[in-house]
Write a structure and sequence with these properties.
Layout lengths: L6 H18 L1 H12 L11 E5 L5 H9 L4 E6 L2 H7 L5 E4 L12 E7 L7 H11 E12 L5 H7 L14 H10 L3 E14 L2 H10 L16 H12 L7 E13 L1
Parallel strand pairs: 1-2, 1-4, 2-3, 4-5
Antiparallel strand pairs: 5-7, 6-7
Helix pairs in contact: 1-4, 1-8, 2-3, 5-7, 6-9
Bound molecules: S-adenosylmethionine.
S-adenosylmethionine binds next to helix 1, helix 2 and helix 3.
Length: 258
């Protein structure tokens, strides 16, 4: 089983980041757009009921609203400050953990979640998604694969043995978790998106500004010394391209039917 950061730490980091999230979340917006662009509903019930699980500030919620204006949109996030910023985009707003949804069985036609799964236990999340979806309900999920932040890991490997990223899952693990939960018609797509930054400080600041800094057991607990920081900067500089310092995101988009 993946060793994730403690839930309270994840929630606190996202709560603190709520006001800086939208300025920094360029990649997250791009992923929502890609997830929606490839998502279609073959049959639309008269009143479509959609859940955005881990809605953050509601960028995905607003896209869903624009695509299906008459749908009933419910949103869930466990960070209250995030949820507050998404509130006016939804019909129903609930502070909750997507691993234990406070909804009855078969409540939704669509379960949507963008870039939240990597903070959770996938088996638990998909079992909950299957429980709250109606038969033939649709799931759309995006998450990050192990190639995410490969430059950062390679630069840190020259400096220390601590963990510097989350334990990201391979697509095969995501598929297995979806199958375990009883989903069918599973389609997984993978693409690398790259963000560029002028320097390492700006790059790390951007990760913190969206609240994605906790990495779990094995993380460095104290500040880095000056020498270690300089070695890290030199190691990361080897990845520089004409556009700047790259940060790769190994994006996995998943679609399935309950
Ligand atoms: C990277 S943000 C993505 C937000 C939004 N979906 C987007 O694409 O902009 C991850 C969000 O998931 C929430 N989150 C993480 N784990 C969660 C959990 N177990 N239950 C509910 N929300 C969770 C965080 O509070 C945060 O708002």
């Amino acid at each position: 089983m993946k060793s994730l950061p403690a839930k309270q730490r994840i929630r606190d980091a996202f709560d603190r980041a709520a006001t800086s999230y939208d300025t920094a979340a360029v990649l997250q917006r791009q992923v929502c757009e890609h997830l929606l662009a490839r998502f279609d509903l073959p049959e639309k019930p008269a009143t479509l009921s959609i859940l955005d699980a881990g809605c953050g500030t509601g960028y995905g919620t607003r896209l869903l609203r624009a695509r299906w204006p008459s749908a009933h949109l419910s949103i869930v996030d466990f960070a209250p400050a995030m949820l507050d910023l998404a509130r006016n985009a939804a019909d129903t707003c609930t502070t909750a953990d997507i691993e234990a949804l406070p909804f009855d069985e078969q409540s939704f036609d669509v379960w949507w979640s963008s870039l939240t799964l990597q903070w959770c236990n996938a088996d638990t999340v998909f079992a909950e998604a299957a429980r709250v979806l109606r038969p033939h309900g649709r799931l759309a999920v995006s998450t990050l694969g192990p190639g995410t932040f490969r430059e950062l890991r390679s630069a840190f490997a020259r400096v220390d043995d601590y963990r510097h990223t989350l334990p990201f899952s391979e697509p095969a693990m995501i598929r297995q978790s979806l199958q375990n939960a009883g989903f069918s018609g599973i389609s997984l797509q993978r693409e690398t998106l790259t963000q560029h930054y002028p320097d390492l400080k700006t790059l790390l600041h951007a990760v913190k500004a969206i609240g994605a800094n906790p990495v779990g057991p094995g993380a460095r607990s104290g500040m880095m010394g000056r020498n270690a920081w300089q070695s890290l900067e030199i190691a990361y500089e080897q990845h520089r391209t004409p556009e700047g310092l790259p940060a790769s995101y190994d994006v996995i988009l998943g679609y399935a039917e309950r």
